[in-house]
Amino acid sequence: MDNKIIDGKAISEQIKKEIAAEVAGMIDKGIAAPHLAAVIVGDDGASKTYVASKEKACHSVGMTSSVYRLPESTSEKEMLDLVAFLNNDPEIDGYIIQLPLPKHIDEDKIIDAIDPKKDVDGFTSVNAGRMQLGLPCFVPATPNGIMELVKRSGIETVGKNVVVLGRSNIVGTPMAILMSRKGIDATVTLCHSRTKSLPDITRQADILVAAIGKQGFVTADMVKPGAVVIDVGIHRIDDPTSPKGYKIMGDVDYDEVAKIASKITPVPGGVGPMTIVSLLQNTLKAAKGEVYPK
Ligand code: NAP
Fold first, then answer.
1. Which of 74, 127, 229, 242 could bridge to 264 as Cys pair (CB 3.0-4.6 Å)?
2. What is the arithmetic mean of pLDDT over 44-66?
């Protein structure tokens, strides 16, 4: 593969091998395989795809997975009861609640009812707060996966200008926090929909992280030649020429930006596989009591 391309698929496969070896070691010692549970409410196609790929990834490393599928009509009280059950089930090391939830359920209330020790998505206020303070915590999977990609691709961060596009709680904001950490030592600018003169800012970036949810938004004129470009976006675009009838594209105009970037993540095969592998890493940590000692 072109050495400009940051191959998230290959890197994630390597990490999966490392996780599988650890899981096999645990089983050899008579310790139960780490167990990740997922809760999915309703019939959202994308959510079903994500949960299915998480299940598959779990099995590929020897972990146990279980999925709780609930109807769209599930009440908030029923969700809270399930969360309480999962918090107390000693066989489950970690679990995720696939978002979005139906509108009649208060997402924040449900997420914050998750026991932080089992919150392998890192979405509870306890884990988010601990991350900001630099304390042991579960870091959300996508930013964690990006940091791993950066490290394993040998991308220098110390003193570099990092521009993050998007300030969501699950991607942009944690990304900005992690990049500005001691040891990573980047200088970070966090941009959002009210940012003025965006291209002037993005052109300052040595590392540009695009997580805005707009397909092909980052064009070549917004990128400094030689920059590293990390594309978080996932967009399913109709494509009658592909066997599946669609193709997956990112927030970056890949063909044009790849011509001037020094390194770039493809979509698919960049950040996506790293997100799933990060969830497995967090589940392993939960099982081992590495973040919150058991
Ligand atoms: P989100 O919650 O919709 O947040 C989007 C952010 O982009 C917001 O902060 C918004 O600003 C900002 N934004 C929107 N339009 C903008 C513009 N014109 N200029 C500058 N900033 C703008 O999205 P998200 O959940 O972070 O996800 C972002 C993308 O990543 C989506 O395509 C999603 O599907 C994808 N994603 C991929 C993975 C993966 O594993 N690869 C994981 C999670 C998400 P305001 O705050 O001002 O509204």
1. 229
2. 94
The domain spans of the chain are 29-116, 141-272
Distance 29 CA to ligand 1 centre (A): 43
Ligand 1 near 175 CB (within 6 A): no
Helices (H) and strands (E) in the chain, counts: 10, 10
Q: Which residue has the tokens 């915590």?
A: 137
- Sort strands 228-231 and 246-249 into parallel, antiparallel or unpaired: unpaired
Q: What is the pLDDT of residue 3?
A: 85
Query: What are the residue numbers of the active site?
Result: 54, 98, 121
- Judge whether residue 154 has pLDDT over 70: yes
What is the reported pLDDT for 274? Answer: 97
What distances in angstroms separate CA 48 from CA 94, 117, 208, 220, 269, one per listed residue? Answer: 19, 25, 30, 34, 19
Question: What DSSP character marks residue 215?
Answer: T
- What b/e string do you get for 16-55 counting C-beta neighbours within 10 Å, with b at 16 or more? beebeebbeebeeeeeebbbbbbbbbbebeebeebbeebb
Instruction: Tell me how far the alpha carbon of residue 43 is from its chain's centroid.
Output: 22
Mean pLDDT (whole number) for 6-16 = 98
| pTM flag (> 0.85) | yes
Whether residue 142 has its Cβ less than 6 Å from ligand 1:
yes
Tell me which fold the domain 141-272 belongs to. Rossmann fold (3.40.50)
| Pocket probe mutation, ligand 1, options 6, 11, 99, 168, max atoms within 8 Å of Cβ | 168
168 lines ligand 1 (CB under 6 A): yes
The yes or no reply on domain 29-116 and CATH 3.40.50.10860 is yes
| Atom of ligand 1 at shortest range from CA of 235 | 32
- Give me 6's structure tokens: 């940051």
Average pLDDT over residues 174-197: 98
Percent of all residues in the chain with a pLDDT value above 90, rounded to a whole number: 96
User: Is it true that 29-116 and 141-272 share their CATH fold?
Assistant: yes
